[in-house]
Amino acid sequence: MRIIITGGSGLIGRALTASLLRDGHEVIILSRRPEQLVGLSAGVRVEKWDGHTAAGWGSLVYGNSAIVNLAGEDISSARWSDKRKGAIRLSRLNASQAVVQAVHAAVSKPAVVIQASGIGYYGPSCDEEISEETLPGHDFLAKLAVDWEASTASLESLGVRRAVIRTGVVLSGQSQALPRMLLPFKFFVGGRLGSGRQWFPWIHVADEAGAIRFLIENKATRGPFNLTAPGALTNAAFSRLLGRQLRRPALIPTPAFALRLAFGEMATIILDGQRAIPKRLLQLGFKFKFPEAGLALKDLLG
Protein backbone atom coordinates (compact mmCIF):
# COMPACT_ATOMS: atom_id res chain seq x y z
CA MET A 1 0.00 0.00 0.00
CA ARG A 2 1.18 3.55 -0.67
CA ILE A 3 1.17 5.80 2.40
CA ILE A 4 1.77 9.54 1.98
CA ILE A 5 2.82 11.31 5.18
CA THR A 6 2.83 15.04 5.78
CA GLY A 7 5.09 15.94 8.68
CA GLY A 8 6.79 12.61 8.15
CA SER A 9 10.23 13.81 9.23
CA GLY A 10 9.06 14.32 12.83
CA LEU A 11 9.16 11.84 15.69
CA ILE A 12 5.85 10.12 14.94
CA GLY A 13 6.36 10.16 11.19
CA ARG A 14 9.79 8.55 11.41
CA ALA A 15 8.56 5.77 13.71
CA LEU A 16 5.54 5.12 11.49
CA THR A 17 7.70 5.14 8.35
CA ALA A 18 10.14 2.58 9.76
CA SER A 19 7.27 0.30 10.78
CA LEU A 20 5.56 0.51 7.39
CA LEU A 21 8.73 -0.06 5.39
CA ARG A 22 9.55 -3.18 7.39
CA ASP A 23 6.32 -4.70 6.11
CA GLY A 24 6.91 -3.75 2.50
CA HIS A 25 4.65 -0.72 2.16
CA GLU A 26 5.57 2.22 -0.05
CA VAL A 27 6.09 5.36 2.03
CA ILE A 28 6.25 8.89 0.63
CA ILE A 29 7.18 11.76 2.94
CA LEU A 30 6.30 15.30 1.92
CA SER A 31 8.86 17.93 2.91
CA ARG A 32 9.34 21.61 2.14
CA ARG A 33 13.13 21.11 2.38
CA PRO A 34 13.97 17.57 1.25
CA GLU A 35 17.66 18.40 0.90
CA GLN A 36 17.89 19.03 4.66
CA LEU A 37 16.41 15.71 5.78
CA VAL A 38 18.85 13.27 7.33
CA GLY A 39 18.54 9.95 9.11
CA LEU A 40 15.43 8.75 7.32
CA SER A 41 14.75 5.04 6.94
CA ALA A 42 16.27 3.42 3.88
CA GLY A 43 13.73 3.01 1.11
CA VAL A 44 11.55 5.99 1.94
CA ARG A 45 10.69 8.35 -0.90
CA VAL A 46 10.76 12.09 -0.27
CA GLU A 47 8.78 14.54 -2.36
CA LYS A 48 8.91 18.32 -2.16
CA TRP A 49 5.76 20.31 -1.35
CA ASP A 50 4.98 23.89 -0.39
CA GLY A 51 2.97 23.04 2.72
CA HIS A 52 -0.31 24.53 1.55
CA THR A 53 -1.21 23.18 -1.91
CA ALA A 54 -1.21 19.88 -3.78
CA ALA A 55 1.26 21.21 -6.36
CA GLY A 56 3.89 18.65 -7.29
CA TRP A 57 2.53 15.74 -5.24
CA GLY A 58 -1.26 15.55 -5.68
CA SER A 59 -0.90 13.11 -8.56
CA LEU A 60 0.60 10.57 -6.13
CA VAL A 61 -2.82 10.05 -4.52
CA TYR A 62 -4.85 7.14 -5.86
CA GLY A 63 -7.39 4.56 -4.73
CA ASN A 64 -5.26 2.09 -2.79
CA SER A 65 -3.39 4.73 -0.83
CA ALA A 66 -3.54 6.42 2.56
CA ILE A 67 -2.67 9.94 3.67
CA VAL A 68 -1.42 10.54 7.19
CA ASN A 69 -1.64 14.26 7.92
CA LEU A 70 0.78 15.02 10.77
CA ALA A 71 2.19 18.36 9.61
CA GLY A 72 2.25 21.28 12.00
CA GLU A 73 4.76 23.40 13.91
CA ASP A 74 5.95 22.14 17.30
CA ILE A 75 3.76 23.65 20.03
CA SER A 76 6.52 23.50 22.67
CA SER A 77 9.53 24.96 20.84
CA ALA A 78 8.98 28.58 21.95
CA ARG A 79 6.81 30.72 24.23
CA TRP A 80 3.32 31.43 22.96
CA SER A 81 3.11 35.00 21.77
CA ASP A 82 0.07 35.91 19.67
CA LYS A 83 2.31 35.70 16.61
CA ARG A 84 3.59 32.26 17.63
CA LYS A 85 0.10 30.91 18.25
CA GLY A 86 -0.96 32.19 14.87
CA ALA A 87 1.93 30.40 13.18
CA ILE A 88 1.15 27.14 15.00
CA ARG A 89 -2.47 27.29 13.89
CA LEU A 90 -1.75 28.34 10.31
CA SER A 91 0.86 25.60 9.78
CA ARG A 92 -1.77 22.97 10.57
CA LEU A 93 -4.59 24.48 8.56
CA ASN A 94 -2.36 25.08 5.53
CA ALA A 95 -1.20 21.46 5.49
CA SER A 96 -4.78 20.23 5.77
CA GLN A 97 -5.79 22.55 2.93
CA ALA A 98 -3.19 20.84 0.74
CA VAL A 99 -4.50 17.39 1.66
CA VAL A 100 -8.09 18.38 0.90
CA GLN A 101 -7.02 19.85 -2.42
CA ALA A 102 -5.15 16.68 -3.39
CA VAL A 103 -8.05 14.38 -2.49
CA HIS A 104 -10.59 16.50 -4.34
CA ALA A 105 -8.40 16.42 -7.45
CA ALA A 106 -7.74 12.67 -7.32
CA VAL A 107 -9.73 10.70 -9.88
CA SER A 108 -9.65 7.68 -7.57
CA LYS A 109 -9.96 8.73 -3.92
CA PRO A 110 -7.59 7.38 -1.25
CA ALA A 111 -8.77 4.57 0.99
CA VAL A 112 -8.27 6.53 4.20
CA VAL A 113 -7.04 9.82 5.64
CA ILE A 114 -5.56 9.86 9.14
CA GLN A 115 -5.95 13.34 10.61
CA ALA A 116 -3.67 14.36 13.48
CA SER A 117 -4.96 16.15 16.55
CA GLY A 118 -3.98 16.38 20.21
CA ILE A 119 -5.30 15.32 23.58
CA GLY A 120 -5.45 19.03 24.36
CA TYR A 121 -8.77 18.87 22.47
CA TYR A 122 -10.48 18.28 25.82
CA GLY A 123 -8.91 21.23 27.61
CA PRO A 124 -7.60 21.05 31.20
CA SER A 125 -9.52 18.57 33.35
CA CYS A 126 -9.39 17.33 36.92
CA ASP A 127 -10.04 13.67 37.76
CA GLU A 128 -12.77 13.14 35.19
CA GLU A 129 -12.12 10.12 32.97
CA ILE A 130 -12.08 11.30 29.38
CA SER A 131 -13.14 9.22 26.38
CA GLU A 132 -13.71 10.21 22.78
CA GLU A 133 -17.28 11.26 23.60
CA THR A 134 -16.12 14.02 25.97
CA LEU A 135 -16.82 17.55 24.73
CA PRO A 136 -13.94 19.86 23.72
CA GLY A 137 -12.44 22.49 26.01
CA HIS A 138 -12.16 26.22 25.48
CA ASP A 139 -8.47 27.13 25.84
CA PHE A 140 -5.94 27.68 23.04
CA LEU A 141 -4.97 24.02 22.63
CA ALA A 142 -8.59 22.88 22.62
CA LYS A 143 -9.64 25.42 19.99
CA LEU A 144 -6.56 24.56 17.95
CA ALA A 145 -7.43 20.85 18.02
CA VAL A 146 -11.06 21.50 17.11
CA ASP A 147 -10.04 23.55 14.08
CA TRP A 148 -7.35 21.04 13.08
CA GLU A 149 -9.81 18.16 13.17
CA ALA A 150 -12.41 20.09 11.21
CA SER A 151 -9.90 21.07 8.52
CA THR A 152 -10.24 17.77 6.65
CA ALA A 153 -13.80 16.85 7.68
CA SER A 154 -15.16 17.72 4.22
CA LEU A 155 -13.40 14.67 2.80
CA GLU A 156 -15.97 12.40 4.40
CA SER A 157 -18.62 13.77 2.02
CA LEU A 158 -16.49 12.35 -0.80
CA GLY A 159 -16.78 8.87 0.70
CA VAL A 160 -13.25 8.88 2.12
CA ARG A 161 -12.82 7.10 5.45
CA ARG A 162 -11.24 9.46 7.99
CA ALA A 163 -9.85 8.72 11.42
CA VAL A 164 -8.71 11.44 13.85
CA ILE A 165 -5.84 10.74 16.27
CA ARG A 166 -5.88 12.72 19.53
CA THR A 167 -2.33 12.03 20.62
CA GLY A 168 -0.95 12.41 24.14
CA VAL A 169 2.69 12.96 25.13
CA VAL A 170 4.75 10.57 22.99
CA LEU A 171 7.55 8.93 24.96
CA SER A 172 10.66 8.11 22.94
CA GLY A 173 14.41 8.33 23.33
CA GLN A 174 14.39 10.59 20.28
CA SER A 175 11.67 12.95 21.50
CA GLN A 176 12.15 16.30 23.21
CA ALA A 177 9.68 15.46 25.98
CA LEU A 178 11.49 12.60 27.73
CA PRO A 179 15.00 14.15 27.79
CA ARG A 180 13.50 17.32 29.30
CA MET A 181 11.92 15.21 32.04
CA LEU A 182 15.17 13.34 32.68
CA LEU A 183 17.43 16.34 33.13
CA PRO A 184 16.45 17.32 36.70
CA PHE A 185 16.74 13.71 37.85
CA LYS A 186 20.28 13.47 36.51
CA PHE A 187 21.19 16.31 38.89
CA PHE A 188 19.24 14.75 41.78
CA VAL A 189 16.63 17.51 41.78
CA GLY A 190 13.78 15.64 40.10
CA GLY A 191 10.22 15.57 41.33
CA ARG A 192 6.64 16.41 40.49
CA LEU A 193 5.72 19.46 38.43
CA GLY A 194 3.35 21.87 40.15
CA SER A 195 0.91 20.04 42.39
CA GLY A 196 1.61 16.72 40.65
CA ARG A 197 -2.10 15.92 40.77
CA GLN A 198 -2.59 16.70 37.07
CA TRP A 199 -3.05 13.63 34.90
CA PHE A 200 -0.33 12.76 32.42
CA PRO A 201 -1.68 11.38 29.11
CA TRP A 202 1.25 9.51 27.57
CA ILE A 203 1.93 6.86 24.92
CA HIS A 204 5.04 4.91 23.90
CA VAL A 205 6.19 5.81 20.38
CA ALA A 206 5.89 2.15 19.29
CA ASP A 207 2.23 2.13 20.29
CA GLU A 208 1.67 5.48 18.59
CA ALA A 209 2.96 4.06 15.31
CA GLY A 210 1.13 0.78 15.90
CA ALA A 211 -2.17 2.54 16.57
CA ILE A 212 -1.90 4.62 13.40
CA ARG A 213 -1.22 1.47 11.40
CA PHE A 214 -4.21 -0.19 13.06
CA LEU A 215 -6.41 2.70 11.94
CA ILE A 216 -5.04 2.59 8.39
CA GLU A 217 -5.56 -1.15 8.06
CA ASN A 218 -8.85 -1.60 9.92
CA LYS A 219 -11.69 -0.54 7.63
CA ALA A 220 -14.12 -0.33 10.55
CA THR A 221 -12.26 2.61 12.08
CA ARG A 222 -13.42 6.16 11.55
CA GLY A 223 -13.89 9.23 13.72
CA PRO A 224 -11.84 10.28 16.78
CA PHE A 225 -9.46 8.04 18.73
CA ASN A 226 -7.50 8.86 21.87
CA LEU A 227 -3.91 7.74 21.31
CA THR A 228 -2.92 7.42 24.95
CA ALA A 229 -1.84 4.39 26.97
CA PRO A 230 -4.55 2.73 29.07
CA GLY A 231 -2.36 3.01 32.19
CA ALA A 232 -3.21 6.62 33.02
CA LEU A 233 -1.38 8.16 35.98
CA THR A 234 -0.73 11.52 37.57
CA ASN A 235 2.37 13.62 37.07
CA ALA A 236 3.51 12.80 40.63
CA ALA A 237 3.13 9.06 40.03
CA PHE A 238 4.98 9.29 36.72
CA SER A 239 7.79 11.27 38.38
CA ARG A 240 8.18 8.57 41.04
CA LEU A 241 8.40 5.88 38.35
CA LEU A 242 10.94 7.93 36.43
CA GLY A 243 13.07 8.40 39.54
CA ARG A 244 12.88 4.70 40.36
CA GLN A 245 13.98 3.74 36.84
CA LEU A 246 16.92 6.18 37.03
CA ARG A 247 17.69 5.27 40.64
CA ARG A 248 17.27 8.89 41.61
CA PRO A 249 15.06 10.53 44.24
CA ALA A 250 11.83 12.23 43.14
CA LEU A 251 11.51 14.54 46.11
CA ILE A 252 12.02 18.08 44.84
CA PRO A 253 8.92 19.60 43.21
CA THR A 254 9.07 22.40 40.67
CA PRO A 255 6.57 25.08 41.77
CA ALA A 256 3.80 25.99 39.36
CA PHE A 257 4.65 29.70 39.55
CA ALA A 258 8.23 28.99 38.41
CA LEU A 259 6.98 27.06 35.39
CA ARG A 260 4.52 29.80 34.48
CA LEU A 261 7.28 32.36 34.84
CA ALA A 262 9.57 30.34 32.56
CA PHE A 263 7.06 29.28 29.91
CA GLY A 264 4.14 31.67 30.16
CA GLU A 265 0.84 30.36 28.78
CA MET A 266 2.69 27.35 27.34
CA ALA A 267 3.08 26.02 30.91
CA THR A 268 -0.44 24.62 30.53
CA ILE A 269 1.14 21.69 28.65
CA ILE A 270 2.95 20.76 31.86
CA LEU A 271 0.60 21.92 34.61
CA ASP A 272 -2.77 20.88 33.17
CA GLY A 273 -3.61 17.37 32.09
CA GLN A 274 -6.33 15.02 30.96
CA ARG A 275 -7.23 11.60 32.35
CA ALA A 276 -7.73 10.34 28.82
CA ILE A 277 -8.36 6.68 28.08
CA PRO A 278 -8.13 4.99 24.65
CA LYS A 279 -11.69 3.70 24.89
CA ARG A 280 -12.37 3.21 21.18
CA LEU A 281 -9.00 1.58 20.42
CA LEU A 282 -9.54 -0.93 23.21
CA GLN A 283 -13.11 -1.65 22.12
CA LEU A 284 -11.86 -2.44 18.61
CA GLY A 285 -9.20 -4.81 19.92
CA PHE A 286 -5.98 -2.84 19.60
CA LYS A 287 -3.25 -4.39 21.77
CA PHE A 288 -0.81 -2.01 23.43
CA LYS A 289 2.78 -3.21 23.70
CA PHE A 290 3.36 -0.79 26.57
CA PRO A 291 0.09 -0.27 28.46
CA GLU A 292 1.81 0.77 31.71
CA ALA A 293 4.32 3.58 32.25
CA GLY A 294 6.76 1.35 34.13
CA LEU A 295 7.05 -0.96 31.13
CA ALA A 296 7.49 1.97 28.76
CA LEU A 297 10.23 3.60 30.83
CA LYS A 298 12.06 0.30 31.27
CA ASP A 299 12.06 -0.16 27.51
CA LEU A 300 13.18 3.39 26.76
CA LEU A 301 15.71 3.83 29.57
CA GLY A 302 16.87 0.27 30.11
Structure overview:
- The chain has 10 helices and 13 strands.
- 36% of the residues lie in helices and 18% in strands.
- The strands form 4 sheets. A 7-stranded parallel β-sheet has the order 3-2-1-4-5-7-11, with helices on both faces. It has a two-stranded parallel ribbon with strand order 6-13. Strands 8-10 form a two-stranded parallel sheet.
- The radius of gyration is 19 Å and the shape is globular.
- The two termini are 35 Å apart.
- Strand 4 (65-69), helix 2 (82-105) and strand 5 form a beta-alpha-beta unit.
- It has a domain at 2-168 and 204-229 and 276-288: NAD(P)-binding Rossmann-like Domain (Rossmann fold, 3-Layer(aba) Sandwich).
- With 302 residues, the protein is of the alpha/beta class.
SSE diagram, text form:
Elements: E1 2-6, H1 11-22, E2 26-31, E3 45-48, E4 65-69, H2 82-105, E5 112-118, E6 129-130, H3 140-150, E7 161-167, E8 169-171, H4 177-186, E9 199-200, E10 202-204, H5 205-217, E11 223-227, E12 233-234, H6 235-246, H7 256-263, H8 268-271, E13 275-276, H9 279-283, H10 293-301
Parallel strand pairs: 1-2, 1-4, 2-3, 4-5, 5-7, 6-13, 7-11, 8-10
Antiparallel strand pairs: 9-12
Helix pairs in contact: 1-5, 2-3, 6-10
